[in-house]
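pasting for the record
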Amino acid sequence: MSQRTVEHMKWHQAHDAVDRVMVHPSDSEPWKLFNSVHPHFSPESRNVCLGLCTDGFNPFGSFAAPYSC
C-alpha cells in the first residue's frame, strides 16, 4: 500500500552484503538456512520474518540466580 514501506521491507534482499560481515539478520546462516528449507516463502522479499531473542529470560522468576535460560 505504501511505496516507502515496501522499500524498507525489501531492503534485506536488495542490500549489498559484505562477506563475513553481518549488517542485517538476513546475512546470518540461520536466515539462509530458513530460506533454503522454505523455498515457497523466501522468494517474495516482502514476506516478514520475525526473530525472537530471549537473552536474560527467566521463566521461573528467580531473579537472584547467577544464570538465565
